[in-house]
Amino acid sequence: MSTFSREAGAALIEHAQSLDCIHCGLCLHTCPTYQLTGNESASPRGRIHLMRAEAEGRIEPDHSFEEAMNSCLLCLRCESVCPAGVRFESMMESCRDGLDSVRPKGWLARLARRIGFGRILPSRTGIRFTLGALKLAQILGLTRLAPLLLGARGRALASLPSVPPRAERQPLDLAAPASGSETQEAWLMEGCVMPELFGRVNRASAAVLAAAGVHCRTRAEHTCCGALHAHNGDLAGARDLARSTIIAFESSENIPIVVNSAGCGSHMKEYPRLFTEDPEWLDRAQAFSSRVVDFTEFLATPERLDPLKSRLGRSKSGTLAFDDPCHLCHGQGVRSAPRTLLAAIPGVEVVELEDPEACCGSAGIHSMLRPEDSSALLADKLRDLERSGAQTLVTANPGCHMQWAGGLAQAKPGKQVQHIAEVLAKALEPDAS
Amino acid sequence: MQEQIVTQLRAIVGPEGILTDPAALLAYESDGLTLKRHRPELVLLPRDTSETAQCMRVLHEHGIPLVPRGAGTGLSGGATPVPNGVLVGTARMRDVLELNVEDRFARVQAGVVNVDLTRCCDDDGLFYAPDPSSQMACTIGGNVAENSGGPHCFKYGSTTRHILGLVIVTATGEVLHLDEPEVDPEGLDLVGLFVGSEGMFGVATEITVQLTPVPPVTETLLAIFNALDPCCDAVSDLIAARLEPSAIEILDKLTIQAVEASVFAAGYPQEAEAVLLLEVEGREAAVEDTVERMLPILEAHGLLEVRRARDAGERRKLWAGRKGAFGAMGRIAPDLYVADVVVPRTRLREIVRYATDVCTERNLKISNVFHAGDGNLHPNISYDRRDEDEVARVLEAGDLIMEACIEYGGSLSGEHGVGLEKQAMMSRLFTPDDLSVMERVRRCLDPDIRLNPGKMFPVRSCKEVRPQLAGSSGESA
């Protein structure tokens, strides 16, 4: 028998979770990093095998172990095909969290993380300041120097979309009466970087919801849900942000919380997982998570789709292709809703990409941490878009949005990427917008 | 492994093609047979025939044993590393080299995934017929090594019937081109010899496969029964009545429940004791005729209900459920022993009953999902490899089931190969003379016994080779 030398509880993951994997390998072919490398330890099955071996004390979490774990995009496609229902995301998050203390990162990475995760993301001022600095760097052309100084990571930095002018970087102002006969209320979660980089997406979301008969409320002071923290091995930070998010929205109990960022929505639906050992917060997290709903999922039900349909006019958007964000299709199991919405727009042609559920390589901050992998994955997606004949690529997540925008700007100048809310808003009759 | 050899190999395959780190190597310690594990010394991932040949020459020069590996989804331990050995993986050989729609063949690299063969030609109305349940992940090279089957092999035959040509790298690193896509090659059929050789004759790097026209009409039926026995008898009678569905599969209750709890939930009725998944293909009239003649036979055995897939989506779902069944058993226990025995179809009922009794007596959880049409059974026994006593009981039950199949006039392996799992039982099925002839054939291609050594043939000492317990194999050698 194996020697379980390490003390119970010291393992990076809960050993029992790893036992769900029966080693069938059905996940291999869907894993982007296995596809890139052909390396078993860069596959879900291989990673689970290593996590289990670590928990059994058969392997030390050395640099090669860490590499196997950190190369994962957490796209969750493996969960979509796993017949045994392995909870891969939860295992990987806990493994990375544990690795962080077993194998501390270098001082520069620690500092970057402390500032990024600890100071910037949780604070509106911090986000504004950072984006302001980025804007300045873009105006001065400094971002063009980044590739020279930082190599591939610099290229990722240089391909960030240009920060919109200050006038557009404002939280939603819903004081202006949204037209129509609202019958229902919903929170629209604005997100952390969304108001700065994609204020137009939030405005479009509010307009579309209004047209569907929904009156939106927002919480301007709320910023980050903690998804990036959880994915990148900072569960304590993720718990703090989950608590503040729950507090921000829990006063109004039965009102749905609409999220137009698939990555955040997916994470917030899983909040209870962060509090399995804290009964009080577990209850509150469950109550909160049950109200979280993706923007497309919320709109694609008849009670909202019917009024919305009556407001949609002929669109000039042309040929569209929807690229499923990983945390929408694999994370939340939402697949048909965005297609239902696009099909409801008169005058547009919707085509399918060859592999719409494959990751575009954005994966939170993965595109910054591992730019080579990220651009290899994007290259396949750009090829698929070209083959599909679509002019506009439609997404539902800011990370994917930025990734596609960067890729299209470089490789396919004629094509554009839009959030599904923007496409819908564009099709609203003049009186609805 | 000497640093100088590693450097030599690295120069051939590049830094991405050689794995030496402990975690990277540990991930390769087993294939789908997790009971048997051994960490390889080195993993090589060459990109083509030339790189493979160069690597094999280096390994030959230094007398290093090697094991070929596709996706590592095999269930008999064919890709389990061997002591002091190197793994040669085909995971980076994934190109479709040629697709010839007119002549209906494709030439592909060995690491192409089975399902991608069909994907590359389905727009042209063709498909690759052998469809092992792991087809979403397993490679065509691995299929060749194990002569893999699958539900539709009832009609189309197993892998060997679909391989037209091979490019093989031999033990010494020589490249053999056996890849003229002719129906009947002149001289000895070396391709036929190679298919099913379980990695002992060389590494296939390029494979020419025959593609099959998609039939005009496909009808998929789900026949629901309230007991497993009559379900087995119905299959036997369907065969006897000379009816020709393209696939006949049985799933029992435990399997149905595991699948229905999974992402592959196919809508199998959870209260049913057993279901038959039947597919009939051909021209419309013929399909209709076959279905009509099948129904009375099923009814005579207590058919409760028959459901027809209404469209391609429903059909896909029914099959996805069947093919996810092995993985879905992860919900029952951490490990699964998948037997792969074959019996004459008239004895299906007896052997299923026997397997169930053997397991029940030993307090083991058995589930059945199998290619009934071929008489190819998979009595699946759920267990936990950490429980030494349970492992012993599983192995004992497996042996008893295999012995019974031999007694009934069947065989040890329908499609998974012998590998490590059924090695010890080979001497029950074959005489010493049989085995020695096989070994002589093997030595023609690999005189030093460096290719996948210690597999398939029983070890010729007085003690039987029994799969070792978890944890004791990988670390001890």
Structural summary, described in words:
The complex is a heterodimer of chains A (433) and B (477). Chain A folds into four domains: 15-102, Fumarate Reductase Iron-sulfur Protein, Chain B, domain 2, CATH 1.10.1060; 114-166, no CATH class; 170-297; 309-432, Rossmann fold. Chain A contains 24 helices and eight strands. Chain A has helices at residues 15-18, 32-37, 44-55, 63-70, 77-81, 88-102, 107-120, 124-140, 146-150, 152-158, 194-197, 199-211, 227-231, 235-249, 262-269, 279-289, 295-299, 302-311, 326-332, 336-343, 366-369, 371-388, 398-411, 420-427; strands at residues 184-189, 214-217, 257-259, 292-294, 319-322, 349-351, 392-395, 416-419. Chain A has a four-stranded parallel β-sheet. Chain A has a four-stranded parallel β-sheet with strand order 6-5-7-8, with helices on both faces. In chain A, helix 22 packs across helix 23 (398-411). Chain A starts with 14 loop residues before the first helix and ends in a 6-residue tail after the last helix. Mean pLDDT of chain A is 89; it is low at 1-9. Chain B folds into four domains: 3-89, Uridine Diphospho-n-acetylenolpyruvylglucosamine Reductase, domain 2 (2-Layer Sandwich), CATH 3.30.43.10; 96-213, Uridine Diphospho-n-acetylenolpyruvylglucosamine Reductase, domain 3 (2-Layer Sandwich); 217-328, Alpha-Beta Plaits, CATH 3.30.70.2190; 333-445, Alpha-Beta Plaits, CATH 3.30.70.2740. Chain B is built from 16 helices and 20 strands. The longest helix of chain B is centred in the last third of the chain and has 20 residues, at 388-407. Chains A and B meet through helix 3, helix 4 and helix 5 of A and helix 2 and helix 12 of B.
Q: What is the C-level CATH assignment of the largest domain in chain B?
A: Alpha Beta
Distance between the termini of chain A: 68 Å
Say how many strands of chain B there are: 20
* Total count of helical runs of at least 4 residues of chain B: 16
**Which term fits the overall shape of chain B?**
globular
CATH T-level topology of the largest domain in chain B: Uridine Diphospho-n-acetylenolpyruvylglucosamine Reductase, domain 3
The chain-level mean pLDDT of chain A equals 89
Q: Taking Cα atoms only, what radius of gyration of chain B do you get, to the nearest Å?
A: 22 Å
Give the strand line-up of the largest sheet of chain A.
Answer: 2-1-3-4
